[in-house]
Amino acid sequence: MDYRIETLAEKKLVGKRITTTFSNNKTVELWRSFMPGRTEIKNNIGTELYSMQLYTPTFFDHFNPDEAFEKWATMEVTDFESIPAGMHSFILQGGLYAVFRYKGAASDGSNTFQYILGSWLPKSGYQLDNKPHFEVLGAKYKNEDPESEEEIWIPVKLKEK
Known about the structure:
Layout: E1 3-8, E2 11-20, H1 27-34, E3 44-54, E4 69-77, E5 88-92, E6 95-103, H2 110-123, E7 126-128, E8 133-137, E9 149-158
Antiparallel strand pairs: 1-6, 2-4, 2-5, 3-4, 3-8, 6-9, 7-9, 8-9
């Protein structure tokens, strides 16, 4: 799988958040709640959407599908001067990320994440960093369409020796 290593600049995001698990995934509910109100975000930068996950530092040490994490549906904004009712702000700190292009239905993505975290990462010169994971949903994103494309951003740092 092709990837690139990129240094992300800090981003300001506005959107909705929910606590969920992999076993009782509420992602669809979150996005159904966010999408109608996204037009109220007046100071957005571009049209890309950010699907972001905040995990505890040990979340992937002993993976448990019932462990809770925070999931966000967001857009990038210029500032936090005007945040629509029911939405929240988040500063995505910059840093090093491994970026993978995924093509396929959103519901088929779990195999790609298993490959990245279970195969690619252990063989790479990197380890997970304790920063948000996110996907960029741009113009080619079509949700369940097999031709849909998105970018998967995994926070990394050089492996400690």
